[in-house]
Amino acid sequence: MAACTAIAAAVAWVVDSLPPKLPLSHKQCSRPRFFSQGRQGSGVVHRFLCMHNRVSGRSSSARRNSIRAETSDTEKAFQTTVELDKFIDELRYADQQELPVLVAKNVLAFDTPFWLRLAARADICGSNDDKKDYEMLAASIMTIVECVIQKTQEEIESSTGVLESILQPITQKDEEIIWPPRDPSILVEMKKEVERKEQQGFLDESFLSAVTAQIRQAREGGDKPGLVAILQKVLQLYAAQMLSKRSYALKDGQVVQAEEFLETIISADEENWEGLIRSGLVYGGGQIEPEELFKVVKKRVERVDMRTESGSYQQRVVLEYLKEIEERAQAVIEAFQTSRT
Prior knowledge:
Blueprint lengths: L1 H16 L23 H14 L5 H33 L5 H8 L6 H13 L3 H40 L17 H15 L5 H17 L3 H19 L6 E2 L2 E2 L1 H11 L5 H8 L9 H18 L5 H28 L1
Antiparallel strand pairs: 1-2
């Protein structure tokens, strides 16, 4: 059970690092490789020795500077080797239940320097039994890593299918996406699809992490503002759905106006927030004091903190939605106050 939990956590972590395949006509970023190229520690020592020979004819000042630089590189290489050896020993002495957990939690650590060091350890070991132990360890690690990669790919493909269905209302026959949609009813269709998928249990942590990762990739690319807006809308619809599951507008048979007002904002499209806030607050002729609105927002934040897993994507997405409402309200209030002076 612990191994399965660790692998699931590793999958969510890896999914967050990879851009999912989305049904959008935007150029996709290439996926990073799991096993990146590194440099061998012994190569650093070799370069230091060669440098020492080459600088023998230089001035003493230049020679000291070069030696200090190469010594620093050697120290870093030595420290890296020490850390790798410690990690390898931890893996080597883990039992059959601990090893999958350890590998899954450190799935991105199995890069080229790790495998080179593991091979070096196998080469210098004193007995054939020890060498076989290293070979079996390497095989076990590879099996677990491949399992994580496979599950990661499955999660990405599943999340892509869910996202395709949510974006179907704004997707044309040629797979081009029109954003913002010209027909407001299209957003209603998207909202209904989000509700359906959430009720069916498809909008899980893997889905949220995949959408969040794609937003980050699009922002880093700098040329996909439309894609960012579309994916943000998906997360907004998700947050609104989660916050609308339970109403707090009725207490002891009495309507709590501030709660009712907040729920109206939550369920409204983000583009309509400012108008709703302006007309609902006392500054704009409404009945809600700013302090009352901020108080019920704070209560919602506290409820989300208590009822969602700390640090989960669900918690982060919903809290960000409430924070955005609070900031919009604060901006409207400041605008009212400025206009009065």
